[in-house]
Specification:
Number of helices: 4
Strand content: 35-45%
Largest sheet: 5 strands, mixed
Radius of gyration: 26 Å
Number of strands: 28
């Protein structure tokens, strides 16, 4: 199986996870795109966005381990200090990207402008100060949340209609709260803040991450269930069909700095959450109870990607600030997750995505190489271990003779 990694330098890497005979796993990371080079390729297509506001669609050749740029675009509204908070494919040769400033862009790769020869770019605006943006599995809607921005669901096609009235970029905070019961043009549903605290004070709104929950994970189903994580460490589950307030509100789930990342797990009632420390845990969506924690992490999680329930065995991949890519097992049949393999990737990875291919079994040559390396380590003596008795006695005799010669002098 394979995962794609993006890092802080704009590079694209491939992490191939190969199953060893028995229960072991091996991870091999290779560079696919350094942000500028290109080569002949024709295979898997993947979209990238970088910190300079540029985007590209590239094709990956597995055999040659190379890439070729198919399309490029640039949003002129992107400013220094801005960042992308979401990227998604529409399924019909289109790519949607969103920045924290609320700049939404749709690129139709099969619709090329005649005078410029580049793909047509549609732009629109939604509220700013966003922390994450997610496209639904059926592509018909998207959701977002942010600092003083409640979780909101929009109609994808309506959001890009030319006749839609644009949302003022500064419509946040107190101005946003005055009209919180009025939906914007293209907005389908918006969450409502939870009740005041025990001092009757308004609780701050800071949604740091969110994800769609599919009833049949891995299939394009309904998109009424959303799970959002907050800066205060709460996980809130919303059902857009029933109410604006969360149907479940689990507090103090994470330990350090609130919820940083949340993604649905390998089963319908499983979800993974990470905080700003080095904690990664699995939760039961039915009760909000922590099922198990992953140990051995030395850095904060930057991204999580899980396989679908149809994949056997179900696995989880993560990247972290300690520059490691890790492959985790999951708690199947009541078990606990563990780190199966890890690989240092030199630069800090920012995202990880599963390409939905199956696992590979390590070839015979690679197995022999690993065995040879293992033999070397097995033959090495540990500190404090006894050497051969013959060589040890010879060495002691030589030392005694040298001491006698020194005394004679």
């Amino acid at each position: 199986m394979r995962f794609f990694l993006g890092d802080e330098n704009g590079q694209l890497k491939s992490a191939k996870c190969m199953k060893l005979p028995g229960t072991g796993w091996k991870v091999s990371v290779s560079l696919l795109d350094d942000g500028g080079k290109s080569g002949p390729a024709k295979a898997i297509q993947i979209a990238l966005v970088r910190a300079d506001g540029s985007g590209s669609l590239i094709s990956i050749n597995d055999e040659a381990n190379s890439t070729r740029v198919l399309d490029k675009w640039q949003d002129s509204r992107f400013k220094p200090g801005s960042s992308f908070v979401g990227l998604g494919s529409t399924g019909n040769s289109g790519t949607i990207s969103c920045t924290n400033d609320g700049h939404l862009s749709l690129v139709q790769h099969n619709d090329v402008t005649e005078d410029t020869g580049v793909a047509a770019l549609k732009v629109t605006s939604i509220p700013n100060r966003l922390c994450e943006w997610q496209l639904a599995a059926d592509f018909n809607s998207f959701a977002y949340g942010g600092e003083e921005v409640e979780v909101s669901v929009w109609d994808t096609s309506r959001a890009f209609e030319p006749t839609r009235s644009l949302v003022p970029g500064a419509l946040t905070g107190s101005k946003r709260r005055k009209g919180q019961n009025e939906l914007f043009d293209g907005e389908i549903w918006r969450a409502k803040n939870v009740s005041n605290d025990f001092l009757n004070l308004r609780q701050p709104v800071h949604n740091t991450t969110l994800t769609y929950l599919q009833s049949n994970y891995g299939e394009k189903g309904s998109s009424q269930h959303i799970l959002a994580g907050t800066r205060l460490g709460s996980l809130r589950r919303y059902d857009t069909r029933t109410a604006r307030k969360p149907v479940s509100d689990w507090r103090e789930i994470t330990r350090v700095g609130g919820v940083k990342k949340v993604r649905q797990g390998n089963s319908e009632h499983e979800v993974y959450a990470a905080d700003h420390g080095s904690n990664l845990l699995a939760l039961d969506l039915r009760t909000g109870r922590v099922l198990y924690n992953y140990s051995g992490l030395a850095g904060a999680i930057t991204s999580i990607a899980s396989t679908t329930s149809s994949h056997s065995p179900p696995l989880l991949a993560s990247t972290s600030l300690d520059r490691f890519f890790r492959l985790h097992s999951t708690g199947v049949d009541g078990g606990r997750g563990d780190v199966l393999a890890k690989e240092w990737v030199k630069t800090t990875p920012s995202c990880v995505v599963w390409d939905e291919c199956r696992e590979e079994t390590l070839a015979g040559d690679d197995i022999e190489e690993d065995e040879d390396e293992g033999d070397i380590w097995e033959k090495m003596k540990g500190v404090g271990e006894e050497e051969d008795l013959t060589s040890s006695s010879d060495a002691d005799g030589e030392i005694q003779r040298e001491n006698k010669r020194r005394k004679a002098r």
